[in-house]
Amino acid sequence: MRFRSVMLAGLAVALTACTTTSLPATNPIESRWKGQSAGVFFAKYGPPISDTASGSETLYTWRGGYKNTRVPAQFEQTKDGKRGKQTAPARTLYLSCTVQITASEDYSIRSIRPVADRPGVNGPSYCAEFLTAE
User: Fold this and answer.
1) pTM
2) CA–CA separation, 55 vs 37, rounded Å?
3) How many CA atoms lie less than 13 Å away from 60 in the CB half-sphere?
4) Cα 117–120–123 angle (5° rounding)?
5) What is the pLDDT of residue 80?
6) What is the pLDDT of residue 105?
């Protein structure tokens, strides 16, 4: 009996040590938007395509940033600096971004994460390029 009481007291102490803390931003998009108003985000980029209430928070799904860009063909460089054999054909990239935004009761962004992302023109994430541009 005494052992059970000690274990319950230890468990209670362990659980009281668990608190919800604000985690640091995990991606460049979150670094830019975390803590700001979701209204500012939606005013700048357009309305969400869906929203789901979950207790005191709301989960929004947003899609946008549609862009077509042409990537030129790539060629080998010869020893004398001339263009050699083609290594990759020219192509068109169809870029877009989908993110999930968690907003609190006061409409501030608590987290924002890419759901559907594509390689960008200048980096590995088009969502990061589009949503972090000033």
Assistant:
1) 0.69
2) 19
3) 22
4) 115
5) 87
6) 92
- Alpha carbons 116 and 91: distance in angstroms, whole number: 21
Q: Give the helix/strand (H/E) hosting 110.
A: strand 109-116
Q: In the prediction, which pLDDT does 1 show?
A: 53
Give the span between the Cα atoms of 48 and 63, in whole angstroms: 7
Higher pLDDT, 5 or 80: 80
- Give the chain as a 3 state SS string: CHHHHHHHHHHHHHHHCCCCCCCCCCCHHHHHHCCCEHHHHHHHHCCCCEEEEECCEEEEEEEEEEEEEEECCEEEECCCCCEEEEEECCEEEEEEEEEEEEECCCCEEEEEEEEECCCCCCCCCHHHHHHCCC
Predicted pLDDT at 18:
41
